[in-house]
């Protein structure tokens, strides 16, 4: 009985179990700014048919592992819908000849804004949380502030299946 109790206590003390929504938000942004940004940077790849596409499925799996809700991942994916449509008609070798950002933007591919920083064009390397508030037992809201960019936006975390996940950025 003592062994089971010890295992339970250790599992709840584990970093995998986080019952503090503000910590979940901090953990995500710390990860993102310290290498995660590169892990979830959407990349142009060659499809099996030789056309251009994006590595959205790979990025989605990484985001879900870092406690982003499926709903927010879907919102992120929707920002690439027009881009994917344009790319699906472009052979990968033709895409590779594009040598200017304006050529990529003509394809409706927004590669410059930071979705996870409220679509800012800034490239932040620091943040802080302010005004965190538990709205109810399953919803938490906080402001993410980037002092160097004079940027402030809200992040909503919700409790889903017993764990906190980031569900909205605005």
Describe this structure in words.
The longest helix is centred in the N-terminal third of the chain and has 19 residues, at 21-39. The termini are far apart. 40% of the residues lie in helices and 24% in strands. The model is unreliable at 1-17 (pLDDT under 50). A hairpin with a 5-residue loop joins strand 1 (44-46) and strand 2. The strands form two sheets. The chain has a four-stranded antiparallel β-sheet with strand order 3-4-5-6. The protein has a two-stranded antiparallel ribbon with strand order 1-2. 18% of the residues are buried. The protein has a single domain, classed as Roll (Nuclear Transport Factor 2, Chain: A). With 170 residues, the protein is of the alpha+beta class. The protein has helices at 2-13, 21-39, 56-65, 70-78, 81-87, 92-96, 101-106; strands at 44-46, 52-54, 128-136, 139-146, 151-160, 163-169.
List the helices and strands and how they pair.
Blueprint: H1 2-13, H2 21-39, E1 44-46, E2 52-54, H3 56-65, H4 70-78, H5 81-87, H6 92-96, H7 101-106, E3 128-136, E4 139-146, E5 151-160, E6 163-169
Antiparallel strand pairs: 1-2, 3-4, 4-5, 5-6
Question: Could you list some keywords that capture this structure?
Answer:
170 residues; alpha+beta; Nuclear Transport Factor 2, Chain: A; four-stranded antiparallel beta sheet; two-stranded antiparallel ribbon; 24% strand; elongated; disordered N terminus
């Amino acid at each position: 009985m003592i062994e089971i109790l010890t295992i339970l206590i250790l599992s709840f003390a584990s970093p995998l179990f986080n019952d503090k929504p503000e910590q979940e938000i901090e953990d995500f942004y710390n990860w993102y700014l310290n290498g995660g940004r590169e892990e979830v940077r959407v990349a142009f790849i060659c499809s099996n048919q030789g056309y251009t596409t994006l590595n959205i499925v790979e990025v989605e799996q990484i985001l879900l592992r870092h406690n982003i809700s499926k709903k927010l991942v879907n919102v992120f994916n929707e920002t690439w819908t027009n881009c994917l449509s344009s790319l699906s008609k472009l052979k990968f070798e033709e895409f590779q000849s594009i040598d200017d950002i304006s050529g990529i933007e003509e394809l409706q591919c927004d590669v410059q804004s930071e979705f996870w920083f409220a679509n800012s064009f800034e490239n932040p390397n620091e943040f802080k949380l302010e005004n965190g508030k538990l709205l109810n037992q399953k919803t938490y809201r906080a402001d993410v502030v980037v002092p160097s960019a004079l940027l402030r936006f809200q992040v909503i975390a919700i409790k889903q299946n017993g764990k906190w996940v980031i569900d909205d950025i605005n």
